[in-house]
Structure formats: structure tokens, C-alpha cells
Write the C-alpha cells for this entry.
Amino acid sequence: MALPTFALHDFDASTGSHQDNIFRLREAAHSHGFFYLSGHGIPESLIAGAFRVSREFFDRPEAVKREIENWHSPHFRGYTRTGSELTRGARDWREQLDFGAERPVRTASADAPPWALLEGPNQWPADIPALKPVVLELQAQLTEVASRLLRALATALGQDAEVFTPLIGETPTLLLKLIRYPGSDFADSTQGVGAHKDTGLLTFVLQHEQSGLEVQDGEGWIAVPPRAGTLVVNIGEMLELASGGYLHANVHRVVTPAGQNDRLSIAYFLNPHLDARVRPIALPAALQAAARPSAHDPDNPLLEQVGLNLLKSQLRSHPEVARRYYAGVAGAVAAKGAEHA
Ligand SMILES: O=C(O)CCC(=O)C(=O)O
Ligand SMILES: [Fe+2]
């Protein structure tokens, strides 16, 4: 069992097999919620450059990396040490560097929502000047690919191609993560990252050479190894919600690589604007019958308010940042989540 690959231009209306491709896309996004995308137009040189700066950063001594540790940032940006991130309460064995959209801090006001603080500047490593332009360019190009793909998915659901476009708007919420998974010789567990669903609309994963990503399939797991020239696409919970439960935000995980090997990946997460509320589209009857009642997973209550949903998941993943900057709101956010359970 392997996941299908689509080329981005397969979905252009000018292609002869357009209808067939759109149908297959809908099936892939509904069944496993995971597929490969080729022909995305992002130059190999940009991707290779991103892996190069990533390797350069992770090769630095721990003390240097910790100069931009994420607990210096109320916006959850910067470096996360191996073992300090949690998925469902258990430690993930990976180190990572998180970059959001490079924007100023939102002006403080007494009635600002708690998620306003998710927006703000990044922390950039001082001694790797090549990293910032590469990361910002990759963010911009992946956002363009995401908006094309969202149009194809809208068409596949029998909607106007632009139905999801307002969710992205001018200021979508982006997160680009450079990630390194140490090998089992250096890890205390096989949990690279524990089984989870992504919170946003769409996730793209670029993989270097090493495998490890797996997606749930019934009782088992399907391996999602790197394929040259592709990125991995997966549907997030916000798009499952927006699609009326038809598109599937599936559970996935990363298994620690064997021995001395390590694994580099780059994950890009697209969310709507923080102040947006996501409401389900009205599906055609035939699709409606096969949709999932998505908002009712008691282990993972889904909030239609984007900022709250994102803050809830960041607070769970990064307890140190939560303690430092969100002590006053963490309880209220968790309670809000429980209300929706
Ligand atoms: O590193 C990967 O391949 C995927 C990571 C992932 O699933 C995540 O960070 O949400
Ligand atoms: Fe994920």
C-alpha cells in the first residue's frame, strides 16, 4: 500500500484528464488525507539550500543553539531542544527551529484575545545569515502552492474554486519548522514525534534522505518515505472542519531513525488568519453522506476559532513557553477546549 502522487498542474482545467485527477485527489484527501505532490514548481536549489542551512544550524553546539531557544519568545518561535516537546503528554525525540510569518507584535490592548501573542517576529540565528532569506522564500513559495491546492480541493468538493480563499486572506498564519530527528543510539525512545493530527488547513513535509514518517491506516501504519521531487501533503483539522468533515485530518507519527542515522525534515503548516472562524461548507448530498462528524473527538476537541485552536495546541506542545508567558490564560484555554469535547 503506497500513497498516490499528483502533479500540481494535473488539476488545471486545461488538462484533458482534469476531471479524473480532481476525482482521485478527492478520494486521496478523503481516505488517507495524505498524498505526494510533484510539479510544485519550487526549485530543487531552494529546497537543497534550506536543508543545508538546517544542517548547519543543528551541527552547532547545544549552547549556541540555545541562544535562540523558544522560551525567549512569547510567539513560540525559535529552537526547541530534543525531549522538551510533548505529544499527548509524551516526549518527542527531535530538535527543531520554528519560524512563523515575519510580522510585528500586535499592539497590546486590555481586550486583546490571548492568541494575539502568537503573532510577532522570529528569532534568527545570528551567525547563519543565509538562513533567513531561504526560510522566508520557502514560506512564500509554499503558501502559493497551498493556495493553488486549496482551489483544486474546493473544486473537488463541488464548490466554487475560491471558497477557501478568504480563509487564507492577506495574513494567513504560517509555521515553517526545520526539524532533526536523532538516531536511536542517541534517543531515549522511538517516538520521533508521537501520533497526532495537524491542527491547520494544510501541512507540507519536505523530507531529506531518511524515512520515518508514517500515516495511520486502520490498525496499522503506512510508511511515507521520501520521493524525489515531491512534497508530502496532509490535511489538517481546520480543513476537515471547513470541508464539513469530508476531507480527512489523519493521525501520523515519525519513528526515530536507526542507530547513528539522523533524519532532517521541513514541515510547513498553513492556518487561516488568527481572528478567523472556520465554518463548514454545505456539501453536495452524495459527499455529505460520507463525511465524518469531525468536531467530536473527545481527546482532541476542535475549536472553530483559529487563534484559540492554535494556542491550545501550542500550549500543550511547549509547556515551558506556556508557563513563562501564558500562565494567566492557559487554564482558560484548556477549559474552552474541554467545553467543546
Ligand atoms: O517530520 C515529519 O516528517 C513530520 C512532522 C510532523 O508530523 C509535525 O511536525 O507535525
Ligand atoms: Fe504532523
